[in-house]
Amino acid sequence: MIYCFLAVDAEIVSIDSFSKSPPKRGLVVGITFIKDSGDKASPFLNIYCDYEPGSEYNLDSIAQSCLNLELQFTPFQLYHAEVDVGDQPETVFLLSGNDPCIHLYKENKGLHQFEEQPVQNLFPELQELPSNVLWLDVCNIPGSGRRLTAFGCQSGYVRVAQVEQARREILQSWSIQQDGPISKVLVFRLPSSESDPAQNGNGGDQGYSVLVTSTIELSVVYRNVLTHGLADQLTLPASDQHDSVLCALVTDVDFDGAPEILLGTYGQELLCYKYWSSGATGASAAEAEGLSLPAGEFQLLWKRSFPSPLLSMEYADLTCDGLCELAVVCLKGLHVLQHSLKQTAQCLLERLRQEAARRASHSRVSQQVRDANADGEAAEV
């Protein structure tokens, strides 16, 4: 697909896309790039969106409907987030740059195009940044009207904020200074059950944690930030042994209901970590006990080598067979990792056996309750 207003020699910096929040319809694609004009390099943001009825999801039509914006700063991450504007949800673009600022682009309904608006109108936590933001993540907390916003900077500065969306009020804010540039920040929910996640797929009660990866340090997880802020830190062992971490993903790849952490490195390694809420030993367990923090640790589950540095990852159902694949973008190409069908089938059969046993047990208990009620009614007569 050829996107208009995108030169063949343009250097693409970042890409993002989203479907408009209901009741609106349509696909929106954003591309930041730098065009070399010979005497200088000019940065641009292209936003593609078709407003013609019936063409909102037509990729060919969208690619030819472009808003071309010349930027006055070097763009970094292009991200989208959903916010409540009045009583309607609205999805906006957030673009970090070297100014250093976060720039907000919101759709103007009357003009049928996106335009830049002051970021403090919707995201007060993204003001007064101390350094260039390299990665940003926003997580809306379901049913609460609140959100968690986390970002990491080129200077190593990390900030996490809890915000009341309706009033645009910062309820809590935590920050920490690390030693090197932050390459990725992700907000996710981590199981806090005292049993192994492999034995307890629901993971017990879940709290929001923040993964922070660094270019020169160990990657860390700040656990249950709403309760402990950034005080409860768990490291990912050996995550600094394969050069810089360039990308990360949090998803369940072993079908146990608990998320694993995947790290992609410049050293051409894919690392998979699993969290164990029990079994922490030595200094980590003693430190947790002294701070009244729950025990737990991350362990390296497996790793895999690639022929070039890993740049990005996505876990999605690419073959439309109901089973997700892991797409890994490397410096020299795209790799797609698939689950073993034999192991997946065995896992499915075991889950079906467990579900059948659970239903049979529930049926027996229900029958016993009905029999007891019937005996009680007969005795009264």
Topology at a glance:
Layout: E1 11-19, E2 27-36, E3 41-48, H1 59-63, E4 66-70, E5 75-85, E6 88-97, E7 102-108, E8 113-117, E9 133-141, E10 146-153, E11 157-164, E12 169-177, E13 182-191, E14 206-214, E15 220-222, H2 225-228, E16 233-235, E17 245-251, E18 260-265, E19 269-276, H3 282-290, E20 297-305, E21 310-316, E22 325-330, E23 333-337, H4 341-380
Antiparallel strand pairs: 1-2, 2-3, 3-4, 5-6, 6-7, 7-8, 9-10, 10-11, 11-12, 13-14, 14-15, 15-16, 17-18, 18-19, 19-20, 21-22, 22-23
Distinctive features:
globular; single chain; alpha+beta; four-stranded antiparallel sheet; 381 residues
Can you give a write-up of this model?
- The chain is an alpha+beta fold and 381 residues long.
- The protein has a domain of 122 residues.
- Helix content is 15%, strand content 45%.
- The protein is built from four helices and 23 strands.
- It has a four-stranded antiparallel sheet, with no helix packed on it.
- It is globular and about 95 Å long.
- InterPro entries: Kptn (IPR029982).
- One of its GO terms (molecular function) is actin filament binding.
